[in-house]
Design goal:
By secondary structure, the chain is α/β, with parallel strands linked by helices. It is about 40% helix and about 15% strand. An eight-stranded mixed sheet has the order 4-11-10-9-8-5-6-7, sandwiched between helices. A four-stranded antiparallel sheet has the order 12-13-16-15, covered by helices on one side. A hairpin with a 7-residue loop joins strand 1 and strand 2. Helix 1 packs across helix 3 and helix 5 packs across helix 11. The longest helix is centred in the C-terminal third of the chain and has 27 residues.
Length: about 450
């Protein structure tokens, strides 16, 4: 039941009443709303008032509508259990979600994916409903080999592509493979994602390798007798830097000289804004570089698909590790292959790339125009930026204040395993996750909190 005041703008009052009803769960996600004619009659307002309110809330992301169907509450606005009870947000979920590594879940290409799934269910061969080749469906491996060659310069035979369930599984599979072929030590970038370090450390000894302005320090790899180097050369996470041409040459020379392996994590290679894409390292040394990519940033975590372009000497061990691991949905593989084949995947990428670039520009402008002493780095690509705090502001102070204001960001120190003071106090800010209607408020909250922090 909606109650409107008898004064002020009836349209604005209706908009706010609907927002409140969605926020507190009285209108759950997916619920069908009355037609504009019926709601106007119930509330005693004009049909045009209801239509205008619906249109505004659709634009803000609160409601959703398709031609020929009813207006409904948009998915993701309020979760509910199967019994119909409200499910509260996970403890600690921020009101303003600017955490890195998270694409916008509302950007998932529902229609394109549904079309690909329908085609898959209609046309998939019977063996697609079984376990099949542990490397993955040949349809996806063939399509991916061509796509990666075109977009990233990857040189790989489809027989040497292994499909997996995202980067975390890929790293675990590679850890098993390295251990089986006798690798003892792997060098990994510092800073890096802690879960990724733990995943590899389960199988081989992981040593921290710092970065300088050119990228991963090859001299440290030599000093610790590393046999594997794990890196993000195109857009380092979380620093946002890219490996220089000189350092790329040095790293490849290290692999040749020591018969070492390079794991190239191309986690956001599809998102480039201000510079031309840089060819993957694998394109220069396919026999020594293991290339790993996934859909975690392009489609989101709902579709758990990744791929490993594996040099021939490691392939047998990697395929055996995948055979023992959790299988990757063949139907999802075929759906992605279909999206790539008909051009829907590229169309989706172009759309979200424009949207993320606009969000990045809003973040950078707000920081540069409203906060003195901050510096924003790593903005040429990806879905996050490194925001250096004003001089005298400590990371711990910023973390506590932002958490109190329910602004979700990460501190740089949370990714550092050996903090020797070489990095300035900084925040790792993601700009993809908040819904469009809440993004400006999230950036404003971030700026206000950081701007009010005490300086030592």
């Amino acid at each position: 039941m909606l109650d409107l005041p008898g004064w002020g703008s009836r349209r604005r009052a209706l908009e706010e009443a609907l927002r409140s009803a969605v926020r507190d769960g009285r209108l759950p996600a997916g619920m069908r709303l009355p037609s504009s004619r019926d709601l106007a009659a119930q509330l005693g307002v004009s049909r045009g008032t209801v239509t205008a309110a619906y249109e505004q809330l659709i634009a803000e992301g609160w409601l959703a509508s398709r031609q020929g169907s009813a207006t409904r509450v948009a998915d993701g606005t309020m979760a509910r259990s199967a019994a119909g009870f409200r499910v509260h947000a996970w403890p600690g979920e921020p009101e303003h979600d600017l955490r890195p590594g998270r694409p916008d879940p509302r950007a998932f290409p529902r229609e394109l994916w549904a079309r690909a799934v329908r085609h898959t269910l209609r046309e998939a061969p019977e063996e697609a409903f079984g376990f099949g080749d542990p490397r993955g469906r040949i349809e996806l491996r063939t399509t991916l080999a061509a796509c990666l060659g075109r977009a990233r310069g990857i040189r790989i035979d489809p027989a040497q592509l292994v499909i997996c369930s995202g980067y975390t599984q890929a790293l675990g599979l590679l850890g098993e493979t390295f251990a089986e072929v006798g690798v003892r030590t792997a060098g990994m970038e510092d800073p890096a994602v802690p879960d990724h370090v733990r995943q590899l450390d389960t199988h081989v000894n992981v040593v921290d390798v710092p970065l300088d302005d050119d990228g991963l320090r090859v001299d440290v790899l030599d000093a610790v007798d590393a046999e594997v180097a794990v890196c993000t050369p195109t857009h380092q996470f979380p620093l946002g830097t890219h490996m220089s041409a000189r350092r790329r040459h040095e790293l490849l020379a290290w692999a040749d000289r020591n018969l070492g392996w390079i794991v190239e994590d191309d986690y956001d290679g599809e998102f480039r804004y201000d510079r031309q894409p840089i060819a993957a390292l694998q394109s220069r040394r396919p026999g020594r570089v293991i290339y790993v990519g996934s859909t975690s940033k392009t489609l989101g975590p709902a579709v758990r698909l990744g791929w490993i372009a594996c040099p021939a000497p490691l392939l047998e061990s990697l395929v055996e590790a995948k055979r023992r691991a959790r299988p990757t949905s063949p139907l999802d593989q075929l759906a992605l292959a279909r999206m790539i084949e008909v051009g829907d995947y590229d169309r989706h990428l172009r759309k979200v790339r424009r949207g993320y670039r606009e969000r990045r520009d809003v973040l950078v402008e707000a920081m540069r125009s409203r906060l003195t002493g901050t510096e924003v780095r790593g903005i040429e690509a990806g879905l996050h930026a490194l925001v250096q705090l004003p001089p005298g502001v400590a990371e711990d102070t910023a973390r506590v204040a932002l958490r109190k204001a329910s602004v979700g960001v990460h501190t740089l120190s949370s990714y550092l395993r050996s903090d020797d003071g070489r990095h300035a106090a900084s925040l790792v800010v993601g700009y993809a996750a908040p819904p469009a209607h809440a993004y400006a408020a999230a950036i404003d909250a971030l700026v206000r909190v950081v701007g009010g922090l005490p300086r030592q």
